[in-house]
Design goal:
Radius of gyration: 22 Å
Strand content: over 45%
Number of helices: 2
Distance between the termini: 37 Å
Order of helices and strands: EEEEEEHEEEEHEEEEEEEEE
Helix content: under 10%
Shape: globular
Length: about 400
């Protein structure tokens, strides 16, 4: 039901090398060093109607630890720092930390998984560039994102199973705090499934989501309120529809209640669907689509509808390629604004020797809006060489 982050599953093969660990502790712990150097050219570094291009050099340094090679309990911790240096706009230089931690435990009839992540980000989007752009400011917005989750599943019988979870995320802005509002979002999803066949399960799903805002523009607070509550309810299907074709589908109803003076609310048909297809041993493809409520950096509220398609191809054990295309439409509540966002990306990875990779990629984005000053387009070309050892 959550909006699938575009490109999140685009499987850049170079980032997932089957590497040998630098250090092995006992029978369960593997420790790796991570590093890469990337050169990029971005035609629109601010994602603004007024284009500013630049060359960026990015150095990545980090480490990763895995536990549970032969255990029911598995854990992974990864940390890396990104050092970004802009050739022509040194004011945009930044160092960005990233931490990811995940753990899981599996028994025959139940399993539980938990995770936490922290990311320092510095990249404008369609809701981050327009507010300061309308003030005549060209700058990159800095913000930190925290995420945590715990979820579990249990097989009550051979036919009936259930899942329940809790998720939290926080967006904390480090500049332009007089414009953008920090927000905390809490989600509780619950599902009950029945095994229709050995490979397909169907059932009921409900998710409650609440978002609380803090700080930012007084005008945004007056217009959109201090928070928003969302309710999702409907039918879910998951499993193997056909040989080599797996899916997860949700179809239902969504209701949003804004905590503003006008008591604004809205409801809509909601869905999320993803299909993964293993065409051959070398070619995999997927389609993902969604419709749900979304939140903007200045408390904007919108209904987002989108689709993403992608494919990966293995030419050999050393060379692979990917292509991704996506589109989403944002219809804003209260504000008379509609956005069409297009993205296309293509790339290839070469692994000349074990534990190393070289990736070349191109990405095109285009955000078309009916509000003056909020449309933009951009091209990003990058080459990255790295290792995991």
């Amino acid at each position: 039901m959550k909006k699938f982050t575009l490109l999140a599953s685009a499987l850049v093969f170079g980032a997932a090398l089957n590497a040998s660990p630098l250090i092995t502790v006992g029978d369960q712990v593997d420790i790796f060093l991570l590093g890469s150097v990337k050169g990029s050219w971005n035609s629109n570094i601010y994602n603004s109607a007024n284009k500013v291009d630049d060359y960026i050099l990015t150095l990545k340094v980090g480490a990763e630890a895995n536990y549970g090679r032969d255990s029911q309990f598995k854990a992974n911790v990864k940390f890396y720092e990104l050092f970004n240096r802009y050739l022509g706009n040194a004011v945009c230089n930044n160092n960005l930390a990233n931490l990811f931690a995940n753990a899981s435990y599996t028994e025959e009839r139940w399993n539980v998984a938990a995770g936490f992540s922290f990311q320092q980000l510095g990249q404008n989007s369609d809701t981050l560039s327009d507010e300061i752009g309308n003030l005549g400011i060209e700058d990159i917005v800095r913000y930190d994102v925290y995420k945590a989750f715990i979820r579990g599943s249990y097989d009550f019988t051979d036919k009936i199973s259930g899942t329940v979870g809790f998720e939290w995320n926080r967006y904390a802005y480090q500049n332009y705090t007089n414009i953008y509002s920090n927000r905390d979002t809490f989600m509780v999803p619950v599902s009950v499934f029945y095994a229709v066949t050995e490979k397909i399960q169907a059932g009921l799903t409900y998710q409650y989501r609440t978002t609380e805002y803090n700080g930012g523009s007084a005008a945004s607070a007056a217009e959109y309120g201090s928070g928003v509550d969302d309710h999702y309810a409907g039918l879910s299907v998951r499993g193997e529809l056909l040989p080599k074709l797996t899916t997860e589908i949700f179809l239902g109803y969504a209701y949003r209640d804004l905590d503003n003076a006008a008591g604004t609310d809205d409801s809509t048909f909601s869905f999320s669907a993803k299909f993964n297809y293993l065409a051959t041993e070398k070619l995999t493809a997927y389609v993902r689509a969604y419709r749900e409520f979304g939140n903007g950096a200045a408390r904007q509220s919108a209904i987002n509808t989108g689709v993403e398609v992608g494919a990966n191809y293995l030419f050999s054990d050393k060379i692979s390629a990917f292509a991704v295309a996506s589109y989403y439409y944002s219809e804003y509540m209260i504000q008379n604004r509609d956005d069409d966002h297009y993205m296309f990306s293509i790339g290839a990875t070469w692994s000349p020797i074990q534990n190393t990779y070289v990736t070349a990629s191109y990405r095109y984005i285009d955000n078309a809006s009916n509000i003056n000053g909020t449309s933009y387009m951009g091209n990003l070309v990058s080459i990255e060489a790295g290792f995991k050892y």
